[in-house]
Amino acid sequence: MSNLERQASLTVCGGRGFVVAEPVRELLSPRHVRLGESTEVRRLLPNLGRRMVGAWVFVDHYGPDDIADEPGMQVPPHPHMGLQTVSWLHEGEVLHRDSTGSLQTIRPRELGLMTSGRAISHSEESPRPHARFLHGAQLWVALPDTHRHVEPHFQHHADLPRVTGPGLTATVLLGSLDGATSPGTTYTPLVGADLALTAGTETRLPLDPDFEYAVLSMSGEADVDGVPVLPGSMLYLGCGRTDLPLRAASDAGLMLLGGEPFAEEIVMWWNFVGRTDEEIRQAREDWMTSDRFGEVKGYDGGRLAAPEMPPTQLKARGRVR
């Protein structure tokens, strides 16, 4: 999914200097952003208080939206570089097209993983016809310097490993959790998992103490380490945890995001992740004037124009503000 804001801001983040080295409970509130005519998202990362969790650098939660009489998601072709996009649904379908020639319908609890590498473009739309409800999350993972110029590619995995326990089913999107490893390609140590809890469940989830973690609430009523986390909000947990207490007052859906703290400082603007202001400006120019990002074939409509760059460079501010 694209960042469709017309006044995109330049963000420098990353580096280990602001990693919380011990367990914390930092509740992050979302910012509401319109995507197209019928989709509004709750943006949790980047956040005014925190910009990254491991290599996870962007988190949007949307829905559940009733789109029975609406076009649903309609995101025109747009570019990416230096990151991976992770598409994750609880309800509905998203049709993905990209400039490598990929064409794939992504359905609930199937992994759509696009590695932009040096340059890619893609579109996302609700199929015609489509299901009544649309509910999911769109996430980005920053690529480390050693891999950020890889060839662009797309992966779709409909069958993902699961970890089960009394009242808990954890589907592993990326990385490893409790011995289960996703087939999705990763370039830094990280984990992403979808947690389905039944009403009345009390359990503890094993964690890696070297990772920092956050939990996004998708639905229902759940407490994470004793903190109520409402749908559309995210609890940052810091590092140093060996397990995580979870309790569900109703059936609930959560997403666990974690990873080794990202050591590099990065610059993120619009749909690009780079290392310098000059690199980002060149990417914007290339999207507007060249064929660097390729062509998305089959989408019914024009591609998305990039917003104007800010007149001044942004100075490094670290992982938090």
| Count of individual helical segments | 1
State the CATH class.
Mainly Beta
Overall mean pLDDT score? 92
The CATH architecture: Sandwich
Question: Which class do the helix and strand fractions yield?
Answer: mainly beta
Which ranges are low-confidence, i.e. pLDDT below 50, for 5 or more consecutive residues?
A: none
Q: Would you tell me which CATH topology applies?
A: Jelly Rolls
Compressed to H and E, one letter per element, the order equals EEEEEEEEEEEEEEEEEEEEEEEEEEH
Protein name: Pirin family protein
Region (Disordered): 301-321
Domain Pirin C-terminal: 193-290
Domain Pirin N-terminal: 41-141
Describe, in plain words, how this protein is organized in 3D.
This protein is mostly beta strands and 321 residues long. It has a single domain (27-259), classed as Jelly Rolls (Sandwich), CATH 2.60.120.10. The protein is 4% helix and 48% strand. The protein contains one helix and 26 strands. The longest helix is centred in the C-terminal third of the chain and has 13 residues, at 277-289. 46% of the residues are buried. The mean pLDDT is 92. This is Pirin family protein.
